[in-house]
Amino acid sequence: MELKYLFVFPFLVLAFFPDSSRSAIPRWLGERKTRGSVIRMKRSGSSAGVDPTRVTQLSWRPRAFLYKGFLSDEECDHLMNLARDKLEKSMVADNESGKSIESEVRTSSGMFLGKAQDQVVADIEARIAAWTFLPAENGESIQILHYEHGQKYEPHYDYFHDKANQELGGHRVATVLMYLSNVERGGETVFPHAEGKLSQTKSDDISDCAKNGYTVKPMKGDALLFFSLHLNATTDTSSLHGSCPVIEGEKWSATKWIHVRSFDKTTRSSAAGECKDENVSCPVWARAGECQKNSLYMVGSEDAYGFCRKSCKVCSS
């Protein structure tokens, strides 16, 4: 990571302590307003309210934090409704080529929303930026995931092993995982290498999978933030994590991956007339019909350029 991007890390600690976060807020987050313990910030036309008293530190290796009630029930339902008829088989990134491939490691279905697709999505994205103290432009579009009975995502890292993906905004430094539904049994998020996995008190109703690491049970509206890089920008192997199989019910979640650099800067090159794909998975998604099913993300609109304009053949170069 370039040294100029390391300036954001001192603010990450401030985000989780009410007294500090009220006294030192970076200027790029905009105007700050406080009401009680809630920090309200204005960014790109959206209001972002963050309540540090709802945040609990779960672990320091990896750095992981849980925000209770980050989303309202209405926001959760809205995100699920946006995705219901657009879900496709989830893919994984090949470690060598960086291309998206099908794998039994990940058996869920999912889709990407467009950035600021509507006011609800824009407000959630602004709230994520305010909570993490990481610029909104460093984030990928929100991915909605659906897990049915037996579906899972085996333990993996969110940082990249290949160079192709690292060129798009650099490593993923942080992940915000938002739970959109409760799960009757199973579906836990598990960190097999977490430092506190042995000392954590676990309830009797957790799955066998969840007993193999530090466990977070999905609760509708909660959000889990964890970091894939250390403060010195090296990759954190303790951030290994997975989604346990759903045993009863179904699981809905929304993921926001955040990079060390702007993930949007390549889209600005499109505004200058350059036609290119911004994700190595674009050809695969285009063949699967995503240009029509998810045109806001793939093709774009008057307000935002799409990430897969070349594969969707909407430009000549």
From TrEMBL:
Recorded GO MF terms: iron ion binding; L-ascorbic acid binding; procollagen-proline 4-dioxygenase activity
Residues in ShKT domain copies: 275-315
EC number(s) stated in the UniProt entry for this protein: 1.14.11.2
Signal peptide per UniProt: 1-23
Annotated localization: Endoplasmic reticulum membrane
Keywords, comma-separated and alphabetical: Dioxygenase, Endoplasmic reticulum, Glycoprotein, Iron, Membrane, Metal-binding, Oxidoreductase, Signal, Signal-anchor, Transmembrane, Transmembrane helix
Cofactor: L-ascorbate
UniProt domain Fe2OG dioxygenase: residue ranges: 138-260
InterPro entries: Oxoglu/Fe-dep_dioxygenase_dom, P4HA-like, Pro_4_hyd_alph, Pro_4_hyd_alph_FE2OG_OXY, ShKT_dom
Pfam families reported in the protein's UniProt record: 2OG-FeII_Oxy_3
Keyword Transmembrane helix appears in the UniProt entry: yes
Membrane topology classification: Single-pass type II membrane protein
Superkingdom classification of source: Eukaryota
Top EC class, one word: oxidoreductase
Homology family: Belongs to the P4HA family.
Name by which UniProt lists this protein: procollagen-proline 4-dioxygenase
Species this chain originates from: Rhodamnia argentea
Name of the gene this protein is made from: LOC115741164
